[in-house]
Amino acid sequence: MTDPCELSAVEARRLIGEGALSPVELFDACQKRIEEINPAVNAVVAERFEAAQLEAQAAEAAVSKGEPLGALHGLPIGVKDANEVAGLRSTYGSLIYKDNVPDEDEGLVKAVRSNGAIVMGKTNTPEFTAGANTVNLVYGATCNPFDTELTCGGSSGGTAVALATGMLPLSMGSDIGGSVRLPATFCGVVGHRPTPGLVPYDRRAVAMSPLDLQGPLARNVHDVALLLSAMSTPGGRDPMAFPHDAAGLKVVEPIDLSRIRIGISSDLGCAPIANSLREVFEARMKTLASYVAHLDERDPDLTTSADVFWILRGVYFAAAHKKHYEEHYDDLGDIVRANYEAAVKMTMEQVGWACAEQMRICQAFDSYFEDYDVMICPGVGVPPFPHTQNYPTEVDGAPMENYLGWVGLTSSLSPTGHPVTAIPMGVEPTGMPFGIQVVGPKYGDRFTLSVAAALEELFATLPDMGRPVPDLAKLRSK
Question: Would you call 80 a catalytic residue per the annotation?
Fold first, then answer.
């Protein structure tokens, strides 16, 4: 039998429900994998194995008694260290909170646990999720499982690494400018940035911003949809939350790719991308063209979106980190300090322009989907870089304006509010994972996931396009 920790979440849950797989057996396999692999990559940074084992035993008993089982019953899950778990060290990657142990689960954690998930521990994140390289002053760096000298991306880096190495079948992440999608791409897993408000999040720093979202990651699209259905449980006090059928997200509907119209863009008309990755993307899109109804090159009108994102993100930083900056300056890392300082220098004129321009961008982007069912673009604009380097200062010799310049392929999509699923598509010339973003129509999460699942299934049949898997034997030897 396949090692239980290698099973997909959907398959593991099916076997648990049938009594063919014990939640204890699955827990033991995940714990063993964490103990074997985590020392090499530093993905899981706070563990609760004793409590989780007791929960696995209770989950096993519930199955034997024929009790009702939740959608995630008996499935181990990771929680990003930006979310609060009762009784478990929750630091946000910051020295300010290095000894913080919450008394209560936050709403999102309550939602997944109420659906039967078993929290194994916390996954690493950069300080306050600031940055696309998972490094902080509390736990250090999380390494890419394909090359431990390189970054795994961020800010949901620990989550992506834990999934790629089979430590966990499911894990939660968050995404402002690409924090789900970038690490998913760098580590060869799947991540979904949902429609704003689909996943209730009552710890927003800015009440009505489409930027700050929580999203699921897993090893395949069907597993991501399963976790999304639990994370999007209606409730809480998020002012952006809207009524929807959370259970309906759990099952990915079959899609006939031959009927799908796809618009493609290698750089969104505005984002930096290394020529090596552009060439890989364009070549693989030529292969894809014969499997779909239409595939046309067409850039969306997002020329100003990266600038809009930078300013709106500044509003978020000003709201979230004033107290941290003023009262805990010495404990803050350089990135959070610099981002807060840049934010408070912004003028009301700049903020007003960004808000007005966002409205124009959203309407223009909506019109793109009058001609296409989905848009596809690369998942990231550069190959993974050394994790000792905070961020790339240039792309193919072109200097970056700020430390977020290189993430334009993800950050430029965030202000639109459209759902995006990042899926792997083989490897790029350096041998590291390559991936794409599937962008769907407004409120079209289920449809977007369905298209992504069909593409994932297709890629698995094509040479060099399936999901890459890291060399676990090499990691065990480190």
Answer: yes
